[in-house]
Amino acid sequence: MRFQSGPATSLQNLGDAIPISLFAVPDLDAGATAGKAIRESVQHRGLAPDPAAWDFLAIALSVITADGISRRGDSPDGWTREIAIDIAVREPEAWASQLLGLNRALGFLTTDRWSLSVRDGGDAIDVPLEPYRYDVDAVALLSGGLDSLIGAIDLTDLGSKLLATSHVVRGDAEKQERFARELGIEHLPLNHNASTERSVKETSQRARSLIFLAYAIVAATCTDRYRAGETVPIYMCENGFIAINPPLTTSRISSLSTRTARPEFLNAIERILRNVGLNLQIINPYLLKTKGEMMQECSDQSRLEALAHVSTSCGRFQRFNYTHCGRCVPCQIRRASFLTWGHDDPTRYYFHEIGKLDSEHAGFDDVRSVAIARLEIEEAGFDRWVGPTLSSSAFADPAPVAAMLKRGMLELGALHDAYRIR
User: Fold this and answer.
1) Do the beta carbons of residue 101 and residue 272 sit within 8 Å?
2) Which residues of 3-25 are buried (b: 16+ CB within 10 A; e: fewer)?
3) What is the pLDDT of residues 145-161, one digit of tens each?
4) What is the mean pLDDT of residues 381-397?
5) pLDDT band at 170, cuts 50/70/90?
6) How many Å apart are CA 415 and CA 180, to the nearest integer?
7) Which one, of 252, 249, 414, lies nearest residue 335 by Cα?
8) pTM higher than 0.90, yes or no?
9) What are the structural domains, with CATH classification, of the chain?
């Protein structure tokens, strides 16, 4: 599919391209829109993002909107799509040299074929005479999930002054605000509000992490530290097992395992940012930790006890009326981490007894996938099971990563043993 994105005034000579209007809702139907609420929030706060960061946001908005419109079921193999987007930016010369890297990074992230191009005419946000700048040391993504909560607790306990950025969605907004308030950190909640004409949207959302990073990148350039010429750390706190996300079975390999926090993707994005002049560093301090270890080693155990059950881990949270399903892989990892932590888990799970032998419990795909992975490890050995996951050049020393993944599988194994899943 072909798209053209940018401010409504820049959308012209479309041909067969689907228009995506950025940062404002046009008077005329533009096919798809995104970013109006973000622009309003930034201007309301008197912020002045770096133009390159605002361009990256335009790119991210274009990508996630096109991702939602392009249905995988319409592609020849039922999954892999070919998506071309011509994007209006403020600094096309700077971004033109990064297109190859961007296309490769997006291809790795979503397992599609991306072809981005840039043109002049990007949005120019109004700069206040006295822009507001955050007096912080770093920016952290605060999703409302357990890992980002632990990350925020640990970082603030280490003395970091944080600015938290969040993607606001129904069911998580109050949690995000509560976590920020109780930790005493500044908070910038945003929502892309991407809207399309299609009633049936693509739900795989493999590109979603790009917009979360874009929020943090924009925020990081609105800090005193950035304006002083210092590197601003952006913390994307994710347990190592989910960050690496090893395919549990051969049927889940590649496109069926998300790559949101894989080092290959985050490293590629950081290189691109630096190449366009953005002095930022993306850090996941928990790459070698399991979720259970994150809970055990959290620096403020009493605060974690008070807030852990409030957090959200489930990818189907809204689908089950804002309740954890209890059976998806993130839910299983969450439940296993509470077991490792050694504390009761007061979280309400829609499917609590995952040991039941029916299609909704032990027979559910994700529960069965973990069981199959355990069996494969038992029969063929852990090294053979994990081998393809660690073949990437991103792992200079794969041994610590392999050790972490092994501990993660042991945590999942303890959960399955507790519910007698075989």
Assistant:
1) yes
2) bbbbbbebbeeeeebbbbbbbbe
3) 999 999 999 999 999 99
4) 87
5) confident
6) 31
7) 414
8) yes
9) 2-119 (no CATH), 138-192+206-283 (3.40.50.620), 311-418 (no CATH)
DSSP character for 250? G
Q: What's residue 289's pLDDT?
A: 98
Euclidean distance between CA atoms 290 and 181, whole angstroms: 27
Q: Is the separation of the CB atoms in 89 and 118 below 8 Å?
A: yes
Q: For the chain, how far is it from start to end, CA to CA, in angstroms? A: 44
Scanning 111-258, the segments in alpha helix (DSSP H) are 146-157, 173-183, 208-220, 224-227, 240-244
**CB 35 within 8 Å of CB 57:** yes
DSSP H stretches of helix in 25-78: 36-44, 51-69
What residue type is assigned to position 151 of the chain? G
In sequence order, the 6+-apart residues with CB closer than 8 A to the CB of 24 are: 7, 8, 33, 36, 39
CA distance 2 to 15: 9
In angstroms, the CA 225 to CA 231 distance is: 7
- Express each pLDDT in 310-333 by its tens digit: 999 997 888 888 899 999 999 999
Each residue's pLDDT tens digit, 62-91: 999 999 999 999 899 999 999 999 999 999
